[in-house]
Amino acid sequence: MVPNLYPALGAPEGAGSGGSPEAEAGSFAASGDPLLTSRRSGEPDLFSSRPATGAHEVLINSPRHVTAMAELNDTEFADAVATWRERMRAHADASYLQLIVNEGGGAGASLEHTHAQLYALPFVPPSVARERERAGAYAERTAGSGLLADVLIEEVRRKSRLVAIDDEAALICPWASRGPFELRVIPRREEVRFEDGAGGAAMIATAMRLLAKRFGAPPELNLWVRTAPHGTEFFHWHVDIAPRLTIKAGFELGTGVDINIYPPEQAASDLRDCL
Description:
Strand order of the largest sheet: 1-2-4-3-8-9-7-6-5
Helix content: 25-40%
Distance between the termini: 33 Å
Order of helices and strands: EHEHEEHHEEEHEEHH
CATH class: Alpha Beta
Shape: globular
Largest sheet: 9 strands, antiparallel
Strand content: 15-25%
Number of strands: 9
CATH topology: HIT family, subunit A
CATH superfamily: HIT-like
Number of helices: 7
Structural class: alpha+beta
């Protein structure tokens, strides 16, 4: 582990200059300008912000120079994932821990050597909060059942999107995948926090190697760990892997609706053929 040279999170900095309303409005402001008056006195600031505080670490996946995790052997891969967990536990007080792997320039990687990044956040991101709320609501509605655990049972029963399964975890192409060959690793035993578990490394390795085999080389991709926010009771960690095979265009960016040109059932079949 090394500190990030260009961290996205750090110690709080001093407040900005905060000029007067006239200065902010610019040289076109004049006495009585409606831009300088507001009927919103007492309302929240429309442009509120907060310091980007927390921790941002780089976790080196191997001392051997390789550019993709698919190139690691079993021992190296297990050691890398164990290091992820160790560093996540070191920030147990954070509101949320986000671990990611970017591979390839098109996926946001600025270094060739394989590495992960860990963000210890002082807040829970909205998408994570929504997943937490869905998991909690499902548990309440079903007298304690786990949403992702039930999804996994159904995926194993149907088999069409199941890629592989071992004693610790399953690998699926999720229903309504956002892009071609999107993958999800789900532990078979319901575990709230990734950092508190010990399994799943072998299946993450399987996922990366299958993608490399299917495309003849490791594709550019993003991997992220979805773990439970601090203090959460109902959750089921998972690891998502999204190859960068397409780009989002105007429709996707304008609507937030993804168009997947390759059905997850076909992607799962292709990857099973690579086993």
